[in-house]
Amino acid sequence: MTVLILTTEEDVTADMVVVHLHACAVPVVRLDPADLTGGAALSGEYVHGAFRGHLSSGGRLVSLDGLRSVWVRRPGIPASRAARPSPWLTEESAQALYGMLRSSGARWMNDPDAAHRARHKPWQLRHAQSCGLPVPATLITTFPQAAREFADRYPDLVVKPVSGAHPQDPPRAVPTSRVSPDADFAAVAFGPTLLQRRVAKRADIRLTVVGERLLAARKPVAADAHPDEVDVRFASTTAPWEPAEVPPRIAESVRAYMRGAELAYGAFDFVEDADGTWWFLECNQSGQFGFIEVDTGQPIARTIAEWLSRPVAPRPTRLNGANSAVS
Amino acid sequence: MTVLILTTEEDVTADMVVVHLHACAVPVVRLDPADLTGGAALSGEYVHGAFRGHLSSGGRLVSLDGLRSVWVRRPGIPASRAARPSPWLTEESAQALYGMLRSSGARWMNDPDAAHRARHKPWQLRHAQSCGLPVPATLITTFPQAAREFADRYPDLVVKPVSGAHPQDPPRAVPTSRVSPDADFAAVAFGPTLLQRRVAKRADIRLTVVGERLLAARKPVAADAHPDEVDVRFASTTAPWEPAEVPPRIAESVRAYMRGAELAYGAFDFVEDADGTWWFLECNQSGQFGFIEVDTGQPIARTIAEWLSRPVAPRPTRLNGANSAVS
Q1: Chain A closest-CA separation from residue B105 CA (Å)
Q2: CATH among 3.30.2130.10, 3.30.470.20, 2.30.110.10, 1.10.1280.10 for B110-134+199-298
Q3: Interface test with A, best of B64, B84, B162 (most A CBs within 10 A)
Q4: pLDDT per position as a tens digit, B50-64
Q5: Pairing relation of β-strands B278-284 and B265-273?
Q6: Side by side, which strands form the sheet with B177-178?
Q7: Hey, of B43, B64, B190, which one would you mutate to test binding to chain A, going by the most A CBs within 10 A of its CB?
Q8: pTM of the model
Q9: Which CATH fold topology does A137-198 show?
Q10: pLDDT in tens, A269-297
């Protein structure tokens, strides 16, 4: 049984996992959807109530029945490297590839529909609350008056994007920034704005979840850090990430989050306040982990490889298994 | 409790349903996501473990807690009518709106993630097979040799798009066409191609499903129809659609399909052969129904209105209901 990795050709994070899969002699096929219909090809046949499908990539042919798992790492845009790319060819290729893979029975890291839902920050915040995770007071609004009233109640605020990275090419991370006390919020009317109470933090926490396994890392805030340095991705500190224990209540809530979100992989960002409380900021279902593994030595890549290698569970019995159809 | 309809301003199909909602005195709010952040606005606040959200559209304000259902009819692209539209504003607005709606607890017709999955034709074909629906022999491939072998086994074929409408502006329906006997299939290598055994049909069937209710319509093929007229959308017949009985086995399979697909609405296309067998072609989760209602007098719009009007079911108890978070 083969592990299928959907990613671009150059992807050192995928390489880290592939090393472990090779060490366990698990067959791996890498496929970049961008290579449809050049270096990658597909075929699926629906006859006599049954389906037989195949993928080919880099000269290797794999049966869809023979897939144990699919890792959606960093796939390119389908058919974007075709000889004559077009929106139509991209759409046809996306539907063909992901449509067939969706009915393959393989386990997903992560299921594409669950992943799509889990990207929505407003959904994340509500889901985190429901799972009992502490969430800093947050407002997402296009009403300037709502923003002003929120700022009256929570004078120390940060602003961040609702959606994540700016869609330029290459995508640009938009830093979380502190809101100045004299902000007038009139511009809120021109686009949804996410305001959040700034947590006075003593550390950043990255909690990587792979299946049932939780791997937490912690980076203390430098003693001389300026309070405007709210975004760890852009902070000046050079301190490394260090392994951390997960408080049992957080572990329970995070597992409930993963189950409810139907995710196999998630990278949670928390901030730790002076009382030691972990405040949920977000869960990135495709978050990077290489920098954490390098700093902490935590076996994230190996854990992912183990998850991907597990045998496929027996398929559930269909409600209506009789295939009377002939053709 | 309010019904929220996401659609463009001019939508006579939505109007047909709104008439029935008004007749039952059910409050309705129409919102076109394209109107963010002009005629439409949103706000959501996450404080003390709870969420309070509001939408405003056309001067009306509605609480997200007060929504009983959301009908995703024909929503515009978020913020596309903003004063200064941009891909970034569209992404921020989409995430804000659909992210909040996803956690509102309202019933969806259809749930956006289920709808996305259900659009994939390869997934549809496999799901239909699994539910026991007869599916004509079908091949989706980028291998010319696979296409040639399939054509040897099934010499009478049609070709159709994998994905549906061509993404030009306005979108263009691509007709299903007969494959000529001397086709050489070399071009299959340049894009996924869907080939399907042509069913010699005596009628087209449109089966509209609204919740548990099945409404079937049938249009007989004209006696003098040319066998090349395979696509009912482009056929020359002027015969009206007429109400039809659903064979019990088909009804059972279709209900299994809807449950498995997690859809509340679906428009199934079948063709009926000389033996009376209904062959599954596709299930369009947002298929039009106005033309069927006009021809047959079937109460599709009223049935949709009734489904949308049903009270919200009590929310399931959370695995982890304790909201310890304060902010």
Answers
A1: 11
A2: 3.30.470.20
A3: B162
A4: 999 999 998 899 999
A5: antiparallel
A6: A60-63, A50-57, A40-47, B138-141, B193-197, B157-160, B177-178
A7: B43
A8: 0.91
A9: Dna Ligase; domain 1 (3.30.1490)
A10: 999 999 999 999 999 999 999 999 999 99
